[in-house]
Structure formats: C-alpha cells, structure tokens
Amino acid sequence: MLKKKAVVKYQNGEIIKGWVEEFRPDRESFILFPLIEYSQEDRIEINFNSLKAVFFVKDFVGDKNYKKVRSFNVDLKITPSQRKLIVNFLDGEHLYGTSHSYGRYKVGFFVYPIDPKDNSERIFVVHSAIESVRLMKIEI
Predict the structure, then answer these.
(1) Overall pTM surpassing 0.70 (yes/no)
(2) Is the domain defined by 4-57 classed in CATH 1.25.40?
C-alpha cells in the first residue's frame, strides 16, 4: 500500500512528520511511521482526540516564508458537492479551503486548500480543535 507524507499537528503545538499508510477517519486512531528525527519508534499509534489536524503534504520541508492565500478570489474549479469554507482553529489559525466531507465523520473532516501553491494536498481537521467553521455562499 502507498504511504502518504503527513505532518501531524497536536492541539498543544507539537508536530511529528512521517508517513501514513492507511488513514481512516472512521476509527479512533491511525498509525504514523515517523521520520527518524521525530522518534526512534518504527511506528506510532496516534489518537485523534489530542490532534489539531493531519496535513497530507507534497514535501516535508515547505516554505515558512510563503504567504498563503486568505480569500476565495482565486481561480478555483470546484464541483457541486464541494463546499467553500473557512476553518477557525482554537489557536487562532484560519484555513481557507473546500470540503466534500464536512460533517461526514464524527472526529473531523477533510479540507482541500484553495491555494494551488500550498504545500498541503489535503488536511484532515479534527472537530475538537476548531472554534468555528464558516460555510461560504455558493455562487451560481
């Protein structure tokens, strides 16, 4: 099975980078195969209840100086089943994206960043780390 690069962010600010082989949001936990600089363990079982989000990324380095798009004024092709939304985390971070699965899973939902240059391909946001979610109007 194909492993996906992931950055796991806890609500307390801790970060662990590694690979996820089988991510199932309908379970209570998942297995992360961490990069050696984060853990000497071959694998770590991670429970959703202490997480902020799981970022499935293009690469582990990213660009800390990159300013993400913070509006929906981008050339964005979405399907009718996608919802534009803004996620406001308890720690003050805001995430602009679209979602097919908002409200589908008990523990959280997937968000796809609207910024095509974002390092994240998709993000699993955990409900307990969210202050609010603002659903945007659909323009027809």
Answers:
(1) yes
(2) no
